[in-house]
Amino acid sequence: MKELSKGLDISLRGAVADEALRRFRRQLRAWRLTMPPAPPLVLDFGLGRFAETGLIEQWIANETAAGYCGKYLFVFDGQTCPRHRHGTKHETFFIVKGRVRMRHGGADRILGEGDVLPVAPGRYHSFTGLGPALLLEISMPCRIEDNWFADSAIPIGGHAGGGRSRTARRHAARASSE
Questions:
Q1: CATH code for the domain in which residue 83 is found
Q2: Please, which residues have CB within 8 angstroms of residue 112's CB and are 6 or more apart in sequence?
């Protein structure tokens, strides 16, 4: 994804990422699903705890000029996409396979196959796999700076307190000097 080339990468590489992709592809075969040709991104959000906090993104499109984005989001059982909001991006989630516990608007909801949840800008949300789960996100274009994470250790976008964390400033400084 072009947005991650801005220097603040939250993707995972190496043996853990390779094993996650093997498990992801095995699950897709079991579900008899085919993904778009773009390479999947294994994300740990810069926290180094992929099994707990992370997901795999499979991009379809991020058409900034046309005003839309589409991607698949995959979580393993018990894995969480961390609590965050967007300043301008409106997104809609569709549960393709499996079930998730979606935290949205301060409440937990269990969503299963076929369920749809729109999330307006400014609304905090996160989700956790209840077993392996695949979501389709249809949204406005993705821009890294429009992500506001509650956990200030996540080194991209903004943070709940409105400013960047010390870790994010350090990553940004390192990226600008390279």
A1: 2.60.120.10
A2: 95, 98, 99
Strand partners, 111: 100
| Cβ–Cβ under 8 Å, residues 55 and 160 | no
Q: Indicate the pTM of the whole model.
A: 0.84
Quick one: tokens of 136? 């389709």
Total number of domains in the chain? 1
Closest CA to 123 of 104, 151, 109: 104
Domain span at 43: 2-177
Task: List Cβ neighbours of 153 (8 Å cut-off, separation of 6 or more).
Answer: 46, 47, 165, 167
pLDDT tens-digit series, residues 124-167: 999 999 999 999 999 999 888 888 999 989 887 765 544 443 44
